[in-house]
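Retro notes (design track)

What went well: tokenization of the new backbones is finally stable.
What didn't: we kept losing track of which sequence belonged to which structure.
Fix going forward: every design gets posted as structure first, then sequence, in one message. First example under the new rule, 616 residues:
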């Protein structure tokens, strides 16, 4: 991979400041303006990606992305920036999209075309935050400075800066749009507290005293293990998701000025800007929509993690901690659950959960079947549908509910290293689960392989409260009490959650929300449906696609049982982006509301375009 020299920060500062000032020019519509100006970007790095490398797949193509093992490092302890980037792109594609043969990607929908071009990466800072977030701009060689199309994409989950490449990148880059990304203040910039090592702008491991790290937490004396930015930054990054998105857009315009000086300036008045994302990324672009002061032209949010006041909306932390406690027992009431993970080794532990809940007086029943029915009835009364429960088996079986609750409790409460109110921490672990020091090989791959939320990439959750007969239960009860308890810690966590509540988008901003009716991680009855109702009551024109037989994780459609039951959601996000783009470019009508009657492809059958029933 050919590399451009790192742009001198001191020289670039004036350009960035001027671009930021232009970004705050006359608004195209009413809205609540951002107060921070100008924007600050640091450690700007520019690289070129052509030939056997490219922007969209790092030269891997569809076959390389489908490979079951990640791209290798020549030196496992010291990978190059190019190797880290390629592996991060491989990891993020596979974590988001269904690339399996017969799944339709690159054939029925989507693109993995080779897109040569340039990248610009940097750190951006939100006023008041302790740590920066990563921003990245991909500029294809086919970018048309006459049309000036920019897609701004926020990473899903807690993923790194390439976490939306299969969403915004896959749609925008083949069309010649520049694509900007943000990791939303989370990401995979883990810090090894034992070794004093973090991650630099190019993904390589670096010493704390060398500076330039993406995340360097406060470290109490004697603290060990691993610090995770989402959990330990003390910034509650979710409260600033909208600002992260708009800062990424501002960074993009500044870098487009650098890339095309003859066509400068690039401003929000002369550049078409569409913001998009799925899951947490979908929530982030909706938060940007509410504080937008005229910078965005449209927003497309897929399966968004969004919470509003009233309308039946529920906070993620509320229903995640509820699911972590109750769902393992409740799922035993349902027959024909997707496989895996309800395998023989999982069901006994779930039966034990039913027994413990009964012993605590939480559920009634003389046997597992009766207790499971009681747990199921409880969740149904709390708004869970059968479809969400069935799809939720993934999150229950893979311990995702606990992972979410552990990380988000720390983030919402703005707790630092060693301060988790329930005593959780993160570390590399021995075979028996005990903490150990990370190896050089493990540490070198964290930035590329991690999802931003342990467990994963060799990092596990350390639970100081584990105790028989249900080892996870004491910690889960502590986590739940941070939502419904009366402690100072609970008040602190609930205050952080309140900071993440969304309001209506800017008046006149086109918004499309797309959600799977079977979503078991972010059920649309707790998220999108209340958001749309709130926005419409406020007089906003928000369009809503509800996709039947779509659950939350396209990547799990590589499992045969899931492929036979569910359709992917990404085709509908891409289609919504197509409709919005046509509306902005040619005045085509905005897409109408739709309940999409998608048809699962069935066992052993390939996905066909007609079965998706994509709305016109």
């Amino acid at each position: 991979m050919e590399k451009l020299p790192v742009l001198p920060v001191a020289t670039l500062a004036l350009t960035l400041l001027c671009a930021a000032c232009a970004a705050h020019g006359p608004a195209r519509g009413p809205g609540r303006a951002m107060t921070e100006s100008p924007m600050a970007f640091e450690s700007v790095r520019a690289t070129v990606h052509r030939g056997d490398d490219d922007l969209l797949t790092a030269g891997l193509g569809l076959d390389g992305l489908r490979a079951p093992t990640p791209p290798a490092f020549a030196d496992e302890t010291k990978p190059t920036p190019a190797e880290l980037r390629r592996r991060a792109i491989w990891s993020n594609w596979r974590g988001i999209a269904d690339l399996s043969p017969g799944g339709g990607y690159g054939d029925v929908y989507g693109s993995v075309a080779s897109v040569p071009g340039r990248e610009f990466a940097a750190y951006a800072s939100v006023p008041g935050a302790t740590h920066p977030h990563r921003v990245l701009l991909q500029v294809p060689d086919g970018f048309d400075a006459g049309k000036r199309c920019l897609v701004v994409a926020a990473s899903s989950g807690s993923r790194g800066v390439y976490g939306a490449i299969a969403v915004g990148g896959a749609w925008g880059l083949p069309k010649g749009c520049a694509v900007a990304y943000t990791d939303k203040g989370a990401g995979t910039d883990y810090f090894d507290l034992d070794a004093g090592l973090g991650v630099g702008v190019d993904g390589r491991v670096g010493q704390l005293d060398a500076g330039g790290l993406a995340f360097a937490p406060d470290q109490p004396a004697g603290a060990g293990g691993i610090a995770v930015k989402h959990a330990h930054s003390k910034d509650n990054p979710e409260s600033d998701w909208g600002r992260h998105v708009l800062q990424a857009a501002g960074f993009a315009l500044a870098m487009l000025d650098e890339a095309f000086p003859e066509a400068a300036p690039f401003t929000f008045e002369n550049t078409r800007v569409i913001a998009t994302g799925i899951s947490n990324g979908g929530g982030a672009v909706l938060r940007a929509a509410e504080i937008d002061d005229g910078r965005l032209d449209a927003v497309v949010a897929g399966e968004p993690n969004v919470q509003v006041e009233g309308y039946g909306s529920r906070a993620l932390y509320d229903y995640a901690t509820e699911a972590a406690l109750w769902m393992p027992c409740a799922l035993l009431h349902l027959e024909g659950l997707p496989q895996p993970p309800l395998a023989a080794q999982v069901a006994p532990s779930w039966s034990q959960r039913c027994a413990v809940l009964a012993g605590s007086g939480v559920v009634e029943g003389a046997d597992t079947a009766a207790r499971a029915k009681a747990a199921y009835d409880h969740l149904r009364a709390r708004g869970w549908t059968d479809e969400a429960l069935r799809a939720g088996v993934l999150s229950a079986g893979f311990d995702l509910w606990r992972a979410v609750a552990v990380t988000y409790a720390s983030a919402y409460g703005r707790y630092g290293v060693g301060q988790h109110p329930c005593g959780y921490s993160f570390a590399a672990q021995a075979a028996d689960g005990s903490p150990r020091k990370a190896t050089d090989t493990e540490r070198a791959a964290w930035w590329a392989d991690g999802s931003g939320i342990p467990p994963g990439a060799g990092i596990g959750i350390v639970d100081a409260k584990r105790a028989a007969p249900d080892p996870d239960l004491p910690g889960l009860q502590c986590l739940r009490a941070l939502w419904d308890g009366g402690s100072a810690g609970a008040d602190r966590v609930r205050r952080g959650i309140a900071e993440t509540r969304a309001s209506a988008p800017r008046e006149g901003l086109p918004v499309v929300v797309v959600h799977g009716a079977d979503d078991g991680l972010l059920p649309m009855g707790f998220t999108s449906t209340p958001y749309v109702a709130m926005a419409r009551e406020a007089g906003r024109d928000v369009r809503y696609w509800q996709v039947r037989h779509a659950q939350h994780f396209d990547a799990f459609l590589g499992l045969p049982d899931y492929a036979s039951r569910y359709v992917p959601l990404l085709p509908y996000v891409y289609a919504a982006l197509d409709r919005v783009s046509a509306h902005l470019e040619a005045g085509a009508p905005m897409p109408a509301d739709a309940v999409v009657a998608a048809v699962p492809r069935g066992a052993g059958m390939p996905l066909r375009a007609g079965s998706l029933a994509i709305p016109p």
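Added context from the reviewer: The CA atoms of residues 84 and 108 lie 30 Å apart.
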